[in-house]
Amino acid sequence: MSARDFITDAQNTWCPGCGNFVIQFALRDAIRSAIEGGLDPDSIVLVTGIGCHAKMADYLNINSFYSIHGRTVPVATAIKMADPDLQVICCAGDGDAYAEGLDHLVFAAKRNSDITVIVHNNRVYGLTTGQYTPTSPSGFRGRSTPGGTKEEPFNPLEIMLASGATFVARGCTRKRKELEGVIREGIMHRGFSFIDVLQVCASYFNQTDVYDRAVYSLEGHDAADFDAACRKAREWDYNSDSPIAIGTFFRVIRPTLEERLGVPRKKEGTTEETIARILGERK
Amino acid sequence: MSARDFITDAQNTWCPGCGNFVIQFALRDAIRSAIEGGLDPDSIVLVTGIGCHAKMADYLNINSFYSIHGRTVPVATAIKMADPDLQVICCAGDGDAYAEGLDHLVFAAKRNSDITVIVHNNRVYGLTTGQYTPTSPSGFRGRSTPGGTKEEPFNPLEIMLASGATFVARGCTRKRKELEGVIREGIMHRGFSFIDVLQVCASYFNQTDVYDRAVYSLEGHDAADFDAACRKAREWDYNSDSPIAIGTFFRVIRPTLEERLGVPRKKEGTTEETIARILGERK
Amino acid sequence: MTEMSVLIGGRAGDGINSAGLIIAHLLSRIGYRIYMYFDYPSLIKGGHNFAIIRASPEMKGACRREVDFILALNQDTLDLHRDLVRDRTTVICDSSRVKATGICIPIPGILKEEGAPAVMGNSCIIGAFTRAAGIPWAVLEEVFSRHLRKGLELNLKVARRGYEMASDHSVIPAGDSPALPILSGNEAIGLGLLHGGLDAYVAYPMTPTSNLLHFLADIADRAGLLVFHPENEIAVMLMALGLGYAGKKTAVGTSGGGFCLMTEGLSLAGANEVPVVIVLGQRAGPSTGMPTYTGQSDLHFALHAGQGEFPRLVVAPGDPKQAFTWSSLALRLAWRYQVPALILCDKTLCEGYYSFSSPAASVPRIDDAPAGTPGPSYRRYLLTDDGVSPLLFPGSPGTVIKVNSYTHDEAGITTEAAEMASLMTEKRIRKGKALENGLLDLPVIAQSGDTSSDKTLVCWGSTAGACSEVGPELGFRVIQPVVLSPFPAEKFLRATRGTHEMVVVEENAYGQLEMLLNRFGVRADASVRKYDGRPFAVEELRARLMEVVS
Amino acid sequence: MTEMSVLIGGRAGDGINSAGLIIAHLLSRIGYRIYMYFDYPSLIKGGHNFAIIRASPEMKGACRREVDFILALNQDTLDLHRDLVRDRTTVICDSSRVKATGICIPIPGILKEEGAPAVMGNSCIIGAFTRAAGIPWAVLEEVFSRHLRKGLELNLKVARRGYEMASDHSVIPAGDSPALPILSGNEAIGLGLLHGGLDAYVAYPMTPTSNLLHFLADIADRAGLLVFHPENEIAVMLMALGLGYAGKKTAVGTSGGGFCLMTEGLSLAGANEVPVVIVLGQRAGPSTGMPTYTGQSDLHFALHAGQGEFPRLVVAPGDPKQAFTWSSLALRLAWRYQVPALILCDKTLCEGYYSFSSPAASVPRIDDAPAGTPGPSYRRYLLTDDGVSPLLFPGSPGTVIKVNSYTHDEAGITTEAAEMASLMTEKRIRKGKALENGLLDLPVIAQSGDTSSDKTLVCWGSTAGACSEVGPELGFRVIQPVVLSPFPAEKFLRATRGTHEMVVVEENAYGQLEMLLNRFGVRADASVRKYDGRPFAVEELRARLMEVVS
Ligand SMILES: Cc1ncc(C[n+]2csc(CCOP(=O)(O)OP(=O)(O)O)c2C)c(N)n1
Ligand SMILES: Cc1ncc(C[n+]2csc(CCOP(=O)(O)OP(=O)(O)O)c2C)c(N)n1
Ligand code: SF4
Ligand code: SF4
Ligand SMILES: [Mg+2]
Ligand SMILES: [Mg+2]
């Protein structure tokens, strides 16, 4: 399958300079290299929410479930439960996954559902033209908060670590190569993979300069060390001006939900027989 | 006001031996002592979810908003925003606050809304007769999981710490006095107070023996030390057999949501004038 | 052979439901058809619970306002149900807790002597009942051994003590029909779904459908089902759509409050055409209301939930046989036409127990939507004559399968073009018409009574139980539309042709079925409505009907 | 004085909406009444946007299918709207991007010379338009200085360049009505709520009501409002009820998908009787559908959302004046009768701009529910003749105020007693009747055209704009029920008396108003429906009507 094949003819309507382009190509290339490594392209399913990020479903020529705002994760979990041979990837937004549907994210981490969640964290609601999200810095003047927000952002990495996620990483659209790396790693990880991607929103929250200045790659960090992961995750609180690490913060192998559920056992006899047997017991 | 006054004549229908009784009296006494300390009893508002825990709204003779399953927190946040002079307390269930409505809890912590959330964590759905919750141990055989759950519990204290809660405590219904202490402290805390109460469910998950054996009071712990709080919180993962600390894990003072929002400023002129002025600008 | 009713009552936690079920089986074994109503407040212990078991030669679906036996484990059982007691009523009670004349058994003493736990008091009083009703001991032995999960021997001992303390009091003549299975409505729905091809069931517990979750979880292994209970109803619904997208025939179950949270997913299903079945158990609302009491007040919500317009199937079975049939059909129709299907039931049906003769063999066979051809030209929303697009699931070789909540083109790519929007709306309308046609040969309306009568009683859901008993007695033809969307207006008009006087009976305050009928030009002459959470009893309905008809 | 229309089009991100609004103000200033329609896809940049500004001596609420001026910032503007161009149409374009004959301005060059950013291209073309339309330069200066937030001088410079490059082309005669404010429907709703006494507004952004959130957030400080945007719509609705419980008059705003998530809270409001107002902006569904396009397909969902039965007010204003009046009334009625109130609007109304003459002075005054007497005997759910209980809020001295989602007694304590359940249901029914009575003197039905005509056109919501223009032309009387629940059936029947032929016009596929009318025995002779997300244009509606009427 050639590179071209992964992109549909749908008209691309992201703004010029939008970080989503970088995620698109990083994801495409990560998928491509996974396919080179043996992944069946027909087995890939992309689940998206609603927001600028979600247009990925239109733009990538792979199976997709263009879902509703905030609900990538339960859809993805279920697709994986239905058919553990599928490789399920979510492209979610920060409004989407951190505000509207935060609970699902926590539960997917808790269950270690073997899906990969990529959060296009532009720290703003793009598609609805610029309101604050849970990761906007405090004082952010969005259209719903013209006087500035009165709350601090939360740190999604900390929450994911506290929730039991077995793969926690961060990327940035200003670092395409590294981004592709963590996405590939996330897809390959057996278990719940969470990737927070600091994405430049050219129109409503252009943090290019900040990210160019502050982002650095994790080095010499032991991703097996949970405490170290927590410490690293806390280095930047999504608010203050401090170095911003990208890379894999934490990785551990635990049994996945699908492994533990097992494929439903083959039925003893036909459905009719099962029903008859159950009815017999009710006599 | 005498002790009697706090209890309504509603028929109490908790099971004999239920830990909710202990929470009821600990809460009543904590309120009583707060009143002795100057709290206006008319300013107290109790918000409950739906579940056994929630009957507190019927049983305590104070203002109450008997809400719906999972939704204590947004109701309570809003009551406090509406009138910062009110003292707002939630009695929530673990199914309620950790499953159905987890996101609200995270956001109340993030915002530092000055409310007190008491989670009656019996680690089971009581009222719907015994299904697993997010804090049931793995393998729990509830009515929806007769073969045992296939997931580990999450640790609500860790999640609250990761979410920015400014007061994080744990109590246990086997330790009434200590429970009253943390509840009183939570009520007095200016900011978001979270209290996970390990509550014995006599009918569906009677952990009396476990708690009697494992629970101990935090001592010499510095509640101002976030890292220490995280370490202590991780000592018991709601699954394994380890010592279970009760007491105040973490406490810090940060500006509350209500303080930061401020009371909406007095309007310049009448509403009619405001409308006329705005219309004038639209000409 | 005549009919009879038994009431057993005690405190919440006394196991009244199971005891009632044992009594039901005793009466079933001696040749009766059973209906059992279980009444309990929304609490675990402490309140008053009771069950009424009605045994008749023919199937019934409602209780009477008099009982032949009253088995009292607490004083409330006598005090609260005095109106059901007649001269002939045999009272059997725990003499330690109840003051009464009748067969009084010192249950705690017996339990103590036998070293049995308190909950076995039930067995003791059932033993006494067995003797008083003249049921052979062997029947009790058989029923106990089939239906007690544990402690058989001790239970038998305790029952025997009760049996021996009573005497043949009011002997029930035995019938000769062989015993049928006794099923709750929830179980009938569960088995019907299984019959329809269910692969997965996802639910968050909520009365009155929690027991459907429990039942399916219990049989999951042998039925090869995936049963999952996630964090909340939003997840439930979205998981169902994920499963459906991946080809798993999936149902969910809930009640009003949980259904609210599913409506966004329901609209999604309407738009992305992923089939799903929703079991919606009604209870007394609004809001939390009375969780363990019944109601029929969610009909219009079920008909119209979710933004935008899309075809949906709504069926409201009135008894377990219909429940089985229409649960199977609902799942199959959902997959045939790629529409969401709602099974609208209520506490009375869900948690009532009924003798059940399986309609499995006679449920019409409906095929899934045609399968698509894998390959690069597959289009998930291919525009076809009947609006139904061929189905494929991810993993199909060389095929890209896109479903989409936005208005989309045939390939599932988002569009905002006016023409494509119209085309896709018209596709959905055609699908709805195809569904309507697909229903033509199905038993969408149930009837009883004299079909040439000029007095017609119309009802829906579990209320059909009382109506189909009382209606014919009073000379009504009784019409129960089982399918409520797409509403079979023509068949309904045909079925009611020649009606001079029409009464609509419902367990709600606003007359929701009547509102629906009004849309089709049908006007009722009178309405009988009830909204206190209790199902109509036979005598009550009779009296209410006699008040309103000329 | 005649009417005229201007179309301005460009790429998403070109600021077409603001440019359209400036043109609207120019035309308003020279004495016209304005209607502006803004058409944009759901994306931030790159797609095609356009606005049509219609200026007439009288208020209009729809566009025509021809334009007098076309201002093209991109080629699409000409290519996609050829059907609107007539011989007389003046084309003004950016010669660097558009090939056309007409007034062609080298915008990028001008911007470069003036050192102005790309977005000021609008001002340049507006300058050219001003000249071409014969509007005095001073008018442009005034409009710019009143309505540009920044860069006034540079904008004026750039506009002047455009002005100078054009010539008087198709001079628009000036009228003499003084300029009215120009408001969007969202703004009219916001101001109406304010007029009704709004204390707080809670919302999660969703088209087409996001701009209501933005507007209220903008004016929050001077209006003394609390405006809050929480984590999701479930929180929105529950926060609104918390605020209402504490005495704050609160509204929320959303669209279909968000409304789904509010339905559980809506049912709660029905049960616990805490007043709340929901602004529900319809858009093309189902599911995500076409977020920035219009539709009227949520009527029945709005009427029936939430489990169980409770009275609710549903109003569907058709223009900003009605929006102002009924937003004020909805809030007041909600607080008078302690019911949830829905303001059902749609993208056309919400995001359309209109000349607005404020009805503030004439909105009938409705008082809040009577206040309770503080003290230990206060009961939140006191049973009264009209079902309305006196209100108090927490903090009242010596008073315990309990609201409850369960069936409750007068004091708000949970009960499952059959009698109390019936009493509370009947209380709610009485409240609904009281609300119905309270509506008797209000303008629940809007009419236009010849009221003695035997041809009646029925419509609702923003479609009233096109209908009230076209209907009378074709000899129809036009009836627009503004209140849809409780449906003013009697007034409607009175208003339509003598109708020989009835046509129902709606922007949906299933005929939702028609379904509602059917319930009241009203049958339409014909229906005109549209479901492509675009509002009816005047000519289109005229043609469709002429097709169906005899
Ligand atoms: C239930 C619901 N609420 C609100 C919306 C409106 N909405 C669409 S996208 C969006 C925000 C998107 O923000 P984010 O998830 O951060 O995605 P981005 O556009 O920034 O990629 C909102 C609020 C919706 N579609 N559904
Ligand atoms: C939306 C919704 N879903 C489900 C229910 C049913 N329900 C009532 S209480 C409850 C569980 C209660 O568990 P928990 O919150 O732990 O409270 P407990 O009874 O253990 O105190 C459930 C699932 C409901 N009322 N509303
Ligand atoms: S609004 Fe922001 S996130 Fe959306 S497409 Fe434009 S730049 Fe990208
Ligand atoms: S079920 Fe458990 S939590 Fe509920 S009242 Fe009984 S003991 Fe208490
Ligand atoms: Mg975003
Ligand atoms: Mg619990």
Structure write-up:
- Chain A starts with 19 loop residues before the first helix and ends with a helix.
- Chain A has a single domain (3-282), classed as Thiamin diphosphate (ThDP)-binding fold, Pyr/PP domains (Rossmann fold), CATH 3.40.50.
- Chain A is built from eleven helices and eight strands.
- Chain A is globular and about 70 Å long.
- Chain A is of the alpha/beta class.
- An eight-stranded mixed β-sheet of chain A has the order 2-1-3-4-6-5-8-7, with helices on both faces.
- In chain A, helix 4 crosses helix 5 (102-111).
- Chain C has helices at residues 16-29, 75-79, 107-114, 121-132, 137-147, 152-165, 185-196, 210-223, 233-245, 256-272, 299-304, 320-337, 347-351, 418-438, 464-473, 489-496, 512-519, 538-548; strands at 4-11, 33-39, 48-56, 67-72, 85-94, 103-105, 182-184, 200-203, 226-228, 250-255, 276-282, 313-315, 340-346, 353-355, 402-404, 445-449, 455-458, 477-481, 483-485, 501-506, 526-529.
- Chain C has an eight-stranded mixed β-sheet.
- In chain C, helix 5 runs antiparallel to helix 6 (152-165), helix 7 (185-196) packs across helix 8 (210-223) and helix 15 (464-473) crosses helix 18 (538-548).
- Chain C is globular, with a radius of gyration of 25 Å.
- The mean pLDDT of chain C is 96.
- Strand 2 (63-66) of chain B pairs parallel with strand 15 (402-404) of chain D, so a sheet runs across the interface.
- One magnesium ion is lined by residues 51, 93-95, 122, 124-126, 133 of chain B.
